[in-house]
Amino acid sequence: MSGRSLSTLSLPLSTLSALASAGYETVRDLSSSTPEQLSKDLNLPLPASQAVFSATRASAVLPLTQSAAAMMGATKRYSTSCAPLDKLLGGGIRCGSVLELMGPAGCGKELLAANAVKTFVEANQEVLFVDMQNMAPPATIRRILSDGPTAQADGLDLVHYQTLHTLTELVVFLRNLCDYLKAHSNIALLVLNSLEFPLQSVLNYKDRAAIMDIVKETLARACQDMNLIVIITSHLHSKQVPGTEEPTKWIMIPAYYDNQLPKGRTYRVLIVPQWKTSGVMRLLFSPTHVPNRPVPEEPYQKIGGMIQ
Amino acid sequence: MRIQQLVPPLSADLAQALQEIGIKTDTDLLLAHDPLTIFAKLPTGHGVTLRQFRDALAQVAELASAPVAYGDKLFEQEMKRQEDIYVEDMLLGVPEVDALLGGFNPPRVIELSGDAGSGKTALALQVALRHLTRTANSSVLWIDTGGEFSPERVALLVEKLEGPYSTTALERLQVSLAFDIEAAHEVLEAVRQALSAAADSDAAGEVYDSASASPVTRCIVVDSITSLLGPMLSATSSQGHAIMTTFMRQLRAFADSFSLTILVINTSTKVGPRNTYVANPEAVFETGRKPGLGPSFTFMTDATLWLTRRSRDEQEGDADSTVHTAEVFRSRITRSKTWAPFRIRNGLLVSA
């Protein structure tokens, strides 16, 4: 048995202090004893001593581990139904990656995210669509899915739709996400529409950082375990350029820092409308991003939704 | 240590009698009370005289004391180990930086710290990949605590580092996701099982079929240990510091017993209080930043390398590369306050 120190196991403090005062230091010390003997020795209830023994049982396979080759091997790409975006991403969005669409209000990013659902439904994969600002109600999704020659009659059944408006609901959703995905293993796409909307009520930067930590951890785990594709839309924040007075100058900046999303998997695309029906899309961050270099751009045209 | 586990064991009557009065461990026996008090408290009918009891206490004290090590024997062992291990190739590939610490050969625990973008992950990646492309049967464990590991970036780097075994290098780079300290302990435990099993089968002298043997872990990289240990450190409780110390000592014991190189990536914080600039007294070049996780963290590793990115608008307008410096802040193995420059060109570290 191994020489692992018992204090590194995740057990309640009362159990750990009982073990320490009886002189059990490593897992090897427990090898000569059984749960019943231990509970008598330490004066613990039997379930607690059984918990000690089950915690010491090591798993044969490294938890949450993959080889880098396996991570690269998920080469299946899905189209986002928007040609300039596919081109920016290098042919479509890869399994296990996170795509963030940012842009000013009214640029059509939420509709773009809703359009991306189409490829997945056509490939008979399920989609979990979370709408936080009512920008893409189920009727819109039904219309998108029934458009086009390859529409299926029951396509809408493959879309799990959820609305959230408050911060509490968002946190509960994130905490339950991994279990939900395990229960419905056919879900290949998660859309978090208007993620910034519940977060804008958080005024304290520490609380905001804590919630983004939860988002990052949940997304990284889901993408690694289940090869999930995540599309997030967020609006931009306005910031005053310091030092300019009368008239003050304001710029729009992304809502999240680069390190608040899992850096190894995230693609951040900024939609810049330049004229009424056209503009450019810029890839601000990708896993192979090199800082201080000009970013790739693709022009787009806005025809109803957003197509080149 | 429990009294039942002492080797050679105490007499059964004495052990039983001690259990009855509530003395279970050797610290209880030696330190809780005066020997006469304990002897007086023992229940009647144990048949042990006072002299036998004192002899037993002396024996327990000897077993409980720390093992003795002679300096000259330790030196001999260290010299012998250095000769044996130089076969393994664990170098950065930039001679000036390798000379700062004498290479990255096992067993070492080295801390890489610096501001964001200073090249810590790039350095660790280069050491790991260079080793993988040049050694056939070894693997590297990358513990990712923030989801930052990017396989595309690594694949690009493998192409640039030509080596005889680059085709299988990516399969032998194992990436684990560990967002909190418990997950990190689980990962280390699994590695420990795998390595002890490998060591046992080697010791038993089984026929070694190199084609089917699984690769042996030779290097562990913990990317951003700050996010693992930082949130637990607080000014009001010392529990976080205790967890940090236990974890680092465990890494150290790992490195020693299984002959591993462990690279720990740490981020930086300001030296002075908010809004005031205080220069770091340990740095060769003036800076207001220091490695994170407090002043004691640097003593838990063998050496601390501080990386900085120098501004790019210096001579040689080489648009593709950035100039960095690596300084040794504190080292148990070589001189500190030495530094070397290096360049990062397209993700690859080269001499400046």
Descriptors:
heterodimer; A: 308 residues; alpha/beta; 34% helix; B: 352 residues; nine-stranded mixed sheet; two-stranded antiparallel sheet; 11 helices; 19% strand
Write a structural description.
The complex is a heterodimer of chains A (308) and B (352). With 308 residues, chain A is α/β, with parallel strands linked by helices. Helices cover 34% and strands 22% of the residues of chain A. Chain A has 10 helices and 13 strands. In chain A, the strands form 3 sheets. In chain A, strands 6-5-7-8-4-11-12-13 form an 8-stranded mixed β-sheet, with helices on both faces. A two-stranded antiparallel ribbon of chain A has the order 2-3. A two-stranded antiparallel sheet of chain A has the order 9-10. In chain A, strand 5 (126-131), helix 7 and strand 6 (159-163) form a beta-alpha-beta unit. In chain A, helix 2 (35-42) crosses helix 3. By secondary structure, chain B is of the alpha/beta class. Chain B has 11 helices and 11 strands. In chain B, a hairpin with a 7-residue loop joins strand 9 (321-331) and strand 10 (339-345). In chain B, helix 2 (26-32) crosses helix 4 (50-64). The mean pLDDT of chain B is 85. At the A-B interface, strand 1, helix 4 and helix 10 of A face strand 2, helix 8, strand 3, helix 9 and helix 11 of B.
What is the helix content of chain B? 25-40%
* Widest sheet: strand ordering of chain B: 3-2-4-5-1-8-9-10-11
Largest sheet of chain B: 9 strands, mixed
If strands are numbered along the chain, what order do they take across the biggest sheet of chain A?
6-5-7-8-4-11-12-13
The overall strand count of chain B is 11
Number of helical regions of chain B: 11
- What do the pLDDT scores of chain B average to? 85
| SSE sequence of chain B, one letter per element | HHHHHHEHEHEHEHHEEEEEEE
Low-confidence regions of chain B: none
- Proportion of helical residues of chain A: 25-40%
What percentage of the residues of chain B does DSSP assign to strands (E)?
A: 15-25%
- Going by helix content, strand content and strand pairing, the class of chain A is alpha/beta
Of all chain pairs, the largest interface belongs to: A-B, 45 and 52 residues
**Oligomeric state as shown:** heterodimer
Radius of gyration of chain B: 25 Å
The major beta sheet of chain A can be summarized as:
8 strands, mixed
Helical run tally of chain A? 10
Shape of chain B: elongated
Radius of gyration of chain A: 24 Å
Distance between the termini of chain A: 63 Å
